[in-house]
């Protein structure tokens, strides 16, 4: 009996209609799973900088290195933890207003964030922080100053 192998699947079903449908279904599931894996891999590859910072950040950065950055787009590591010398209130806040649509009057206002100036050596870094956040250590993404904040606060680059 050499070379004989017992296959209960073949014994039970052989090449019946049901066996063909099960094989077809398994093949389609395998192709679908491979397509999903390829799609996820392509998405991560296209957004590798974000994925890397999401998985490995925040990264500590030295003040000297931070002062030498001219544009945050050139950094591979942009999700940072920064410690400055001193922080100052800029007077710019981000406020959410609830407006009654029938009367067109403001019902309530909530301060979502405030912009602080963080002294790092001889330069200032604009930091968006939760309301009443004091301190000199901040973590977050390093991005360019949005134009609406620049106009509202009369800050120049």
Structural class: alpha+beta
Number of helix segments? 5
Strand content: 25-35%
Unreliable spans: none
Radius of gyration: 29 Å
Spatial shape: elongated
Walk across the major sheet and give the strand order: 1-2-6
Average pLDDT rating: 83
**Topology as H/E string?**
HHHEHEEEEEH
Give a structural overview:
This protein has 157 residues and is of the alpha+beta class. The chain has two domains: 9-46; 57-153, no CATH class. Helix content is 36%, strand content 32%. The chain contains five helices and six strands. It has helices at residues 8-12, 17-46, 48-56, 63-67, 147-153; strands at residues 59-60, 79-83, 86-100, 105-120, 123-129, 137-141. A three-stranded mixed sheet has the order 1-2-6. Strand 3 and strand 4 form a beta hairpin. The longest helix has 30 residues, at 17-46. It starts with 7 loop residues before the first helix and ends with a helix.
């Amino acid at each position: 009996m050499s070379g004989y192998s017992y296959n209960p699947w073949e014994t039970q079903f052989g090449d019946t209609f049901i066996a063909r449908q099960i094989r077809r279904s398994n093949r389609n599931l395998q192709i679908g799973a491979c397509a999903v894996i390829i799609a996820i891999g392509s998405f991560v590859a296209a957004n590798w900088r974000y994925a890397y910072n999401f998985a490995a950040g925040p990264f500590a950065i030295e003040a000297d290195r931070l002062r030498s950055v001219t544009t945050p787009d050139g950094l591979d590591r942009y999700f940072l933890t920064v410690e400055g010398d001193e922080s100052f209130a800029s007077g710019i806040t981000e406020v959410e207003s609830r407006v009654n649509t029938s009367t067109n009057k403001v019902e309530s206002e909530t301060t979502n964030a405030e912009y602080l100036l963080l002294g790092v050596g001889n330069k200032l870094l604009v930091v968006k922080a939760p309301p009443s956040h004091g301190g000199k250590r901040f973590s977050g993404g390093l991005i360019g100053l949005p134009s609406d904040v620049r106009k509202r606060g009369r800050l120049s680059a």
